[in-house]
Design a protein that fits this description.
The complex is a heterodimer of chains A (899) and B (116). Helices cover 53% and strands 14% of the residues of chain A. With 899 residues, chain A is of the alpha+beta class. Chain B has one domain: Winged helix-like DNA-binding domain superfamily/Winged helix DNA-binding domain (Arc Repressor Mutant, subunit A). The chains are: A alpha+beta (899), B mainly alpha (116).
Chain lengths: 899, 116
């Protein structure tokens, strides 16, 4: 043969031999022969191009043939899956829920700890843990060029009263923003979408007031006006020019608390009450949060050491004493490039909880899928044996199983992704009850989604393939003779599948315990007594300083306001406070140090961390929480800061504070010291939980809202509590009265106490619902898994059961036989789950005050610790019982004849 | 499930030639290939892989089937498979012929009209 033709024949043979097994079984020989016969003839007729054409033909047809087979596999897989809709639905659903939930759990975490949008290289940003500093300190930090590339000081969120029209008296709305040093945007690496940002050269004291607005503000409130830069806004009563618009999605350095306005500290003195009293030059006003951009290659620890040394020098220069931590540091650094300001401790809690939850749910889903697929695989061994015996190739069969697994996993994964986006949307739309804006922008994190998806898919494929691989290795003759019932190689009594069931039981019990734990914590919260009468209590917030009132005018207005409002028809009483009672989830108040000075018998008692609330006259009467002893503040007490210090300003303490300061003794008339001022206790009040999720009462000292406090306005708002009457729309009447008496006053956050509580209850209920669903899902998965395995065991022992029944075994005995195996698994799984759940429970309690509360009711716990495994076990036993009952229905004659 | 013969129309060119070469006599793969080549004066060549791909499809669609009848011993090659038309295959081929004829007629009518 011609050498070219021989080469061509060799290549042709090689390609023809690569055809799929089934094709070759039918046409292999013919294909070989026809090629060998045709090649010399083609060479004669067409020469080398003909040979190339012939080889090209077979080379192209080869993959096409494989593709046809894959298509057949897919059609067959679809048919097979449709034949067992129960199995398919359970597998797809469990995958979907698992993938969806897992992705969202970790993505929620990302939505708090992820990088803030619009900020360049967030990994090199750092800030102090908790510590706020004064501006002179900041200026010194900024100059540490060897460790810090740049730094910025910011204050906020700070409220601004914004009017869009220049004329005085125009209606103003309240927006939040940051007061920033001029380096803010350059440090964060943000570039303006329009106009310019601040710089130390342009933003000097005495310059014309300017403001940078966020893209969101520009779109929502300025109608995306292309000529917005250069326009003026009335900020806190005076004009400021918009000089720049931030890039899309940028809402400040910690967008978890979104900022829409950015005002430079250098020229904001007159407009932001926070900056009154010249804090830029006072080393004692440590109110600024500093964000550092670390110099290239500088580690966080290096920068921390350097900044700590600087702080100590500054402290020495200014004669200030700061507490040191365990490492002897005065300041501690942490990453600042996160959506929310989260300390390393908080972050550890969130991460641990979420990762544990993620791992539990995912392992549950994988275990469930594994036991489902393994059981199904074993049932199909007869089918495999028949296909092998009629000539199917082993790789083809494995491929067939792989196709089914991939399709199943794919469908589950797809549904999971849809679910993840739906859940994330639902989470994002929940409004978090909080006095300052909070945004929980939860988007499924693509990395998390990819990892979860990959694990779930891998589990589906591996466990789908395992029985196929085992079966194709098995002896066909034996399998056909024994039907589907012969034991698979490697599956012993305590084999892989049983291990999965035990693991599944344990994981679902743990999940159930943990989720119950959280829900119980929430439920206890919901039943929480706010400690005062909530009906007909209305709340209205004011901030006159930001409406352009002078300090004196503000003091005068607020002093007279409760009386003015008391005269409104329907109002029973009205009182002022600087912090709403029971207003937020955590209920954080101004933290202060209170001491009972010496001279007292229990001298020197110091409360390092107590809450301080400033309240006006008739506060407790309006709140409907009568004092336990003594009197409450009256109008005279509001002038008390103008009295000589030695007489002592009146103060009211709650039970916890009284107990901690004076033991069991009567607190009335005792002197206490808070901050720089001396007080005399004039009243004792009941303990009231400070916030929704913090039932633990905190020692609280109530001091009178004085004219100085009105002037300084540290709480950025004053709230008026108005107690109305049944059947009257007090709130509208009060608003009308306010509008007519003080038309230039911006009124915000107007609501009833009931609305507040409802909003918080809704939030809690929503959160609980998620955990309840998670727990139920775990229960469902575990039961399905267990039921599947028991059902499989029954099928496997059909012949044995038949023989036993033929020999006279009663149906009770047969049932017992089947249930025994299931019971063993349930007991082992429950024991493991209980132990694990308890450990996890303990770990969580150590982390969180909210969760610890549900732990503090031992009776409930004991009930639950016995109840949960009981419920789970009985469900599991039911799942076992159904196939066991079916086993007794086996007709011994047909079971024996079948083989 | 019996498929409607009309579903196969218009018939793929290769299929048409394969079916045509099986009219009157059973053939093996190489025979079909040679027959088509000769009948079309070398213009249509069914390359081996294409031919067997088509044969597999024609069998699974029920247009042809494997034949049990072998030729006389001296002409028979035991290693080769022989194929023959099924009833469905014959019907499909007839329908395709009719379709082609009607198209030719259509064209001729058009030509005549142009000539006037």
């Amino acid at each position: 043969m011609n050498p070219r033709a021989s080469i061509c024949v060799a290549i042709y043979r090689r390609l023809a031999s690569a055809y799929p097994h089934e094709f070759r079984m039918l046409y292999g020989e013919d294909l070989d022969r026809i090629g060998e016969d045709a090649i010399p003839e083609v060479r004669r007729r067409y020469g080398v191009p003909g040979l190339v054409r012939l080889l090209a033909d077979i080379a192209i047809r080869l993959p096409a043939t494989y593709f046809t087979e894959v298509r057949q596999d897919i059609v067959y897989a679809l048919r097979k899956l449709a034949q067992s809709p129960g199995f398919t639905a359970v597998a797809v659903l469990s995958l979907a829920i698992g993938i969806g939930m897992c992705s969202v759990v970790l993505s929620e975490c990302q939505s708090m700890e992820g990088p803030p949008p619009g900020v360049r290289d967030p990994a090199t940003l750092a800030t102090f843990v908790w510590t706020t500093v004064s501006y002179p300190y900041f200026e010194r930090y900024r100059d540490q060029r060897q460790v810090v590339a740049s730094a910025t000081a910011c204050l906020g969120l700070v409220p601004f009263a914004v009017a869009f029209h220049a004329d005085r008296g125009a209606h103003a709305e309240r927006f939040y923003g940051h007061l920033v040093s001029p380096e803010y945007f350059t440090t964060l690496g943000v570039t303006p979408a329009a106009g310019r940002f601040f710089s130390p050269e342009t933003e000097k004291p005495g310059m014309a007031p300017v403001v940078v607005i966020s893209d969101r503000f520009w779109r929502k409130h300025l109608g995306a006006d292309p000529l917005a830069v250069g326009h003026t806004l009335r900020l806190n009563g005076s004009m400021a020019t918009i000089v720049g618009i931030g890039p899309k999605d940028f809402l400040g350095v910690w967008p978890g608390n979104p900022a829409d306005l950015f005002v430079p500290v250098t020229c904001a003195g007159s407009r932001a009450p926070e900056l009154s009293g010249d804090p830029l030059h006072r080393p004692d006003r440590d109110i600024f949060r500093v964000v550092f951009r670390l110099a290239a290659g500088v580690k966080m620890s290096t920068a921390e050491a350097a900044l700590d040394a600087v702080t100590r020098n500054l402290d020495r220069e200014n004669g200030v004493q700061h507490d040191r931590d365990r490492k002897g540091r005065v300041v501690r650094l942490m990453p600042a490039g996160t959506v929310m300001y989260i300390t390393p401790e908080q972050s550890a809690l969130i991460d641990t909880f979420d990762v544990v939850l993620w791992a539990l749910v995912l392992s549950l889903v994988c275990a469930n899928l594994a036991s489902l697929l393994l059981a199904r695989g074993s049932q199909r061994r007869r089918e495999i044996a028949i296909r092998l015996s009629v000539g199917a190739s082993r790789p083809r069969l494995v491929r067939q199983f792989l196709t089914e697994s991939v399709m199943l996993s794919f469908a589950g994964g797809l549904a999971g992704i849809v679910l993840a986006y739906g859940l994330a949307d639902a989470i994002s739309s929940v409004s978090v009850p909080s006095p300052t804006p909070m945004a929980l922008n939860c988007r499924p994190d693509l990395h998390v989604l990819a990892i979860t998806l990959a694990i779930a898919l891998a589990a589906g494929i591996v466990f789908g393939l395992t029985p196929a691989l085992a079966s194709v290795r098995a002896d066909i003759g034996l399998t056909l003779k024994e039907g589907a019932l012969s034991p698979l190689r490697g599956y012993r009594r305590f084999g892989l599948r049983n291990l999965f069931v035990v693991g599944q039981m344990a994981a679902s019990l743990m999940l159930l315990l943990v989720t119950w734990y959280v829900v119980a914590g929430f439920l206890h919260t919901e039943g929480l007594d706010p400690g005062f009468e909530t009906a007909h209590l209305n709340l209205i917030s004011l901030d006159p300083v930001r409406d352009g009132y002078t300090a004196e005018a503000t003091a005068a207005l607020l002093t007279g306001l409760p009386d003015e409002l008391s005269r409104v028809n329907g109002v029973r009483s009205a009182a002022l406070t600087d912090s709403e009672p029971f207003a937020s989830l955590a209920g954080v108040r101004a933290n202060t140090r209170v001491s009972a000075p010496s001279g007292d018998r229990k001298s020197g008692q110091v409360l390092q961390s107590a809450f301080r609330e400033r309240i006006g006259a008739s506060y407790f009467a309006t709140l409907g929480s009568p004092l336990l002893a003594g009197r409450e503040f009256d109008r005279r007490d509001q002038q008390s800061d103008e009295l000589p210090a030695k007489t002592g300003i009146p103060a009211i303490v709650n039970q916890t504070a009284a107990r901690e300061l004076f033991g069991g003794e009567d607190p009335i008339g005792r002197p206490i010291r808070e901050g720089e001022l001396n007080y005399t206790v004039v009243g004792l009040t009941r303990d009231v939980p400070p916030g929704f999720l913090t039932a633990k009462t905190v020692a609280t000292v109530f001091v009178p809202l004085t004219t100085t406090a009105f002037r300084e306005n540290p709480a950025q708002r004053s709230t008026i509590l108005v107690r109305g009457t049944l059947g009257r729309d007090t709130l509208s009447a009060v608003r009308r009265e306010l509008a007519s008496l003080h038309p230039d006053l911006t009124v915000f956050d107007v609501h009833t106490m009931r609305e507040d509580l409802d909003r918080m209850n809704a939030f809690i209920e929503w959160d609980s619902a998620i955990y309840v669903i998670l727990g139920l899902f775990a229960l469902l998965l575990a039961s399905i898994g267990l039921g599947g395995v028991t059902a499989y065991a029954v099928v496997r022992r059909r012949k044995e059961i038949g023989i036993r029944m033929a020999l006279g075994a009663s149906s009770l005995q047969v049932r017992g036989l089947v249930l025994r195996e299931g019971t063993a698994l349930v007991v082992v799984g429950s024991a493991l789950g209980l132990g694990g759940g308890f450990a996890l429970w303990r770990a969580l309690a150590a982390f969180s005050d909210v969760l610890a509360r549900s732990f503090s009711k031992p009776a409930d716990d004991a009930l639950f610790f016995i109840g949960a495994p009981l419920v789970l076990a009985s469900l599991a036993m039911l799942a076992c019982y159904l196939p066991a009952r079916r086993a007794t229905e086996i007709d011994p004659v047909s079971a024996l004849r079948e083989e | 499930m019996v498929r409607d013969p009309a579903d196969f129309l218009p018939l793929h060119n290769n299929w048409f030639h394969i079916l045509l070469s099986l009219v009157g006599a059973d053939q093996h793969g190489y025979g079909i290939m040679q027959e088509v080549l000769e009948r079309t004066n070398g213009t249509v060549r069914l390359w081996p892989a294409t031919l067997y791909g088509s044969l597999k499809r024609l069998i699974s669609d029920g247009l042809i089937e494997e034949s049990d009848e072998r030729p006389v011993a001296e002409l028979d090659d035991a290693r080769r498979r022989y194929y023959r038309l099924t009833g469905l295959g014959r019907t499909v081929l007839d329908l395709e012929c009719e379709r082609l004829q009607s198209m030719v007629r259509m064209m001729q009518r058009k030509r005549k009209q142009e000539a006037y």
